[in-house]
Amino acid sequence: MASIALKSFIGLRQTTSENKSIVLTKPNTQTYHKIRINASKTSPRVNGRNLKVAVVGGGPAGGAAAETLAKGGIETILFERKMDNCKPCGGAIPLCMVGEFDLPLDIIDRRVTKMKMISPSNVAVDIGQTLKPHEYIGMVRREVLDAYLRDRAATAGATVINGLLLKMDLPKSTGSPYKLHYTDYNAKTGGAGEKKTMEADAVIGADGANSRVAKNINAGEYEYAIAFQERIKISDDKMKYYENLAEMYVGDDVSPDFYGWVFPTCDHVAVGTGTVTHKGDIKKLQIAPRLRARDKIEGGKIIRVEAPPIPEHPRPRRVLDRVALVGDAAGYVTKCSGEGIYFAAKSGRMCAEAIVEGSENGIRMVDESDLRKYLEKWDKTYWPPYKVLDVLQKVFSRSNPPREAFVEMCADEYVQKMTFDSYLYKKVVPGNPLDDLKLAVNPIGSLVRANPLRREMEKLSV
C-alpha cells in the first residue's frame, strides 16, 4: 500500500465542483442564559473580577468544560496546541451525545447501524437487528468535532489560545493563583511561538493521556493500551460495503487482550488493533486485521498511521486543591471497547458545572471540596458500566475459546438489545428476568456462570 497525504474536508463530505455549498454548521450565536446556582456563602468572594479558570487541552473534554464555564459566568481561558489536530481516534460517539451536546448532524460522517463481530475462527455474527429506525452510532472526525466544540466555547465567551503548556507553578498560599508557563503560537513571532505566563484561580487538565497538568500535581500513572491504526483510502465501490457497517475482530492473532476493527469514516476506513500486554508486538498484531479484511480493503492506500495511548483505568489522583483532571487525562476510557469521546465531553461538563456551582457563577473562590463534588457525581454515575466492561474484558479476552463463545452469544437478540441500549444511552440497562434466565440456561450461559466470571464479580463486592 502506497502512502499519500491526507486531504482536508469540510462538513459531511469532500467539496466537489457539483456541490461547493457544504459547510460545517456554525455554533449557535444566540444569547446564552447564565446558569443560576444557589451556592453556599462560606468561600471568600473574588473581589473586582470573576473567577478565572484555565482549561488546558481543546479536545471534547476541554471544549465542553470551557463552554460550560463561560456560560456560567467564569472568566475562561482555553489552551490548545494544535487547532487543526487530526487526533488518532476511531471516532465513534453514542446517540445520546448528539442530543446532550446539541451536535449538528453535518459533523457526523457516517451513521453505523450494522456491525459484524468476527470470531477467531472467522465466524461472523451480524449485530444491529434490534436498533430502532432513529438509532445509530455516529462516526466523526476529531479535527471537525473538536473545532466545533472550541468555536462554541468561544461564542459563549471563552478566550481560546493556540498555546502549549510548559509547566505550572502551584500556589504558595491558600487562595493564591496558579502560574501557567506556556508557549503562545497566536503571537506573530514565527513558528517558535512566544513564551508567556498567566495566572488562574483554578485549572482543568483536559490535555490527554500524556497530561502535563497531571504530572504537575503528581496524579500518578496508569496502565495503558496502545492502539495502532491505519487510515486506508479504498475505492468507492468497496467503500459502499462500509457505508453504515463496522467490523470487530477478536482472536490471539489480532490481540491477546483487545480487539481489531474496521471503522468507516468520511471517505476512508480506519483499520487497527490494540493491546495492553504486548505493546512491543503491536505492528505484528496489526497485520491480522488487515489480512482478515483483505478482500474488502484490497487496493487501498494508507493515508495516515496512528498509535495513540489509551488509558485503562482512572489515575490514582484526579483532583488536588483547585486542579481537576477530565477525559483521557483522568483516565476515562472504557475497557473492552476503548471508548472515550463521550466520557471526555461529559466529564469536562460535569467538572465545569461543579466549579460554576461552587463559585456561585464566578463571584466566589472554589476549593478542593467543590471539585470533589464532580468526582462523586462522576463515580456514582459511571462506575457500574466501567466495571461491567472491565469484567467482560477479563473473562472473554483470556483465550480463543471464550472469544468464540462471546461472538456466538452476540447473535442473541436480547444480548444485542442490552448491549446497544447500554452503549447508545450510557446506562447499565436493567434486564428482563425471564430473558436473563433463558440466557443463563443456554449453553453459552454456562461460560458466563463459570468460575472466571464468578471470581471477577466476587472482587467487585470486596
Report on the structure:
This protein is an alpha+beta fold. The protein folds into 3 domains: 52-90 and 142-221 and 315-383, FAD/NAD(P)-binding domain (3-Layer(bba) Sandwich); 224-311, D-Amino Acid Oxidase, Chain A, domain 2 (2-Layer Sandwich); 391-460, no CATH class. It is built from 14 helices and 19 strands. Strands 10-9-8-2-1-11-19-18 form an 8-stranded mixed sheet. Strands 5, 6, 12, 13, 14, 15, 16 and 17 form an 8-stranded mixed sheet that branches. It is globular and about 65 Å long. 40% of the residues are buried.
Question: How is the secondary structure organized here?
Answer:
Blueprint: E1 52-56, H1 60-71, E2 75-80, E3 92-93, H2 95-100, E4 110-112, E5 114-118, E6 124-127, E7 137-139, H3 142-156, E8 159-169, E9 178-184, E10 194-200, E11 202-205, H4 212-216, E12 224-233, H5 236-241, E13 245-249, E14 260-264, E15 269-275, H6 282-292, H7 294-297, E16 301-306, E17 309-311, E18 319-320, E19 323-325, H8 341-358, H9 368-396, H10 400-409, H11 413-425, H12 433-441, H13 443-448, H14 451-460
Parallel strand pairs: 1-2, 1-11, 2-8, 5-13, 11-19
Antiparallel strand pairs: 3-7, 4-7, 5-6, 8-9, 9-10, 12-15, 12-16, 12-17, 13-14, 14-15, 18-19
Helix pairs in contact: 1-3, 1-8, 8-9, 9-14
